[in-house]
């Protein structure tokens, strides 16, 4: 068919989309700042009181998906974004369903009838009380146009809305006064969701090393890895020393060359065997340590309290599981092996040099001390840069995730360039920190190599003016010194890299201290049987610094009662559900069928209580999986449930039926 649109369009989606930024930026969304229009939008969307309750007003940062705002607040911010934009046509997809009748009436009168007077407004709604005040009505049924006209025209023609909407909620009113508001809306955390913990020390602590090497608790493998690493170096140093002695005595006719060849060959073969065993046990230890770190972190995240996910976006969490864990899996084991090999090699060279010329220990120790202080100077900067780089990586992931969630809004507003520039901003900040870390590493490598070159020059000049030493010993000392200094410079750089990689272990270890949900004891198998709920002095707040969302609630819900919880947006209605499900620790007690919920395991409790959440969530998979994820019910039961919610006919229209594929967050369904 043909669709013709004349004029610019603004759009508010059915599911509010809030991106990680301030409330003001969520409303402006790329539009120019106009204080008069902005104030009018805030007023007509009933956001004045809510903004006063936020820690920093409209400059308060909201978290990913707007998790720090209630459902009604998110809906009104999304509506404010749509009407702040100066457009000719406003498409508003059910913006009043998430607010109570009092606020909905205020928004309809001040926003649609006054602020948007003279504009074309297409309002999607199922609330009949507003139809009397609109100019034209289109009634849709199963994707087709069932009727059209004004309300009086439709009623005079015999059209009944109840047939299509299920019930008549016309002139539904809810008297709400300021005195009926029990609590303030749930406040935001003052700490930015992108802010992560960092260590005060500039260096990696010994506890971090212990956490990595002892994570698997496989002490036998650890001992064998160290043992075979030591034996490998002993064999390598022994072959060099035996070879030098063989060359030194080889000028005499009575030299037993066969004896030296046997000794040299035996040690060389042992060195190869020890090297293989060293690699096997080292990689075995690294694999088990990495696996143990991942299992611990995954277990803690799965059992973390809800407040943890309020404070950390999915980008930050994925950053730990992706980049940090990849470093621990792929880069850290090799760096540890190189550092251990270098340390043992330097010790072996020291021993060999002691047998030849003990005076060379003096310049060698001076060089080692110089490189050590260079390393300390470098690590002070490099580790902090790596920590900053890790922190700045999270916002990149979060921005991409939020942008994918809000693609329809972004395209409808035509602000792809705004979001792209914001991505470039996050990416540039992250890349600049990474570049500084790499530049610091290159600078350290330059100065380390310069010190090594000076040392080798001094060593060579010494033997140039001293011809009394044996040729074999001269060759051994110079070759060992060059080998040591080459390895030393490389090893110090690798040690610095290892400490950089250890930052990832440090960041993974931070998840060891995540506050997890309690376990509790199992209740009786037939609990609950009656469904009586008692709230005794229940108070709830979402963080230590936040005000109470629920204050000293005392009430009883009798068995079989149907109870309505009434209140304005942000009054604490959803917090009661959070308290029953024990998503947040509470003060006081909640008793169901004479059993205190603190004595019930959370898994058992949540399995016994069903909930319809404020924000519907569908998982990627089939419709059957979303209805019955644990495969506990027959198809007849699932079809009966679909029929009760009037979805059976919709599902029947698809050839796959109950096996209909559902996309991430339900993007394949019709909403």
Automatic annotation (TrEMBL):
Cellular component, GO annotation: membrane
Recorded GO MF terms: ABC-type transporter activity; ATP binding; ATP hydrolysis activity
ATP-binding is among the record's keywords: yes
Family annotation (CDD domains): ABC_6TM_ABCC_D2, ABCC_MRP_domain1
Alphabetical list of InterPro entries matching this protein: ABC1_TM_dom, ABC1_TM_sf, ABC_transporter-like_ATP-bd, ABC_transporter-like_CS, ABC_transporter_C-like, ABCC_6TM_D2, P-loop_NTPase
Sorted UniProt keywords: ATP-binding, Membrane, Nucleotide-binding, Repeat, Transmembrane, Transmembrane helix, Transport
Domain ABC transmembrane type-1 intervals: 223-500
Protein name listed in UniProt: ABC transmembrane type-1 domain-containing protein
Species, as recorded: Photinus pyralis
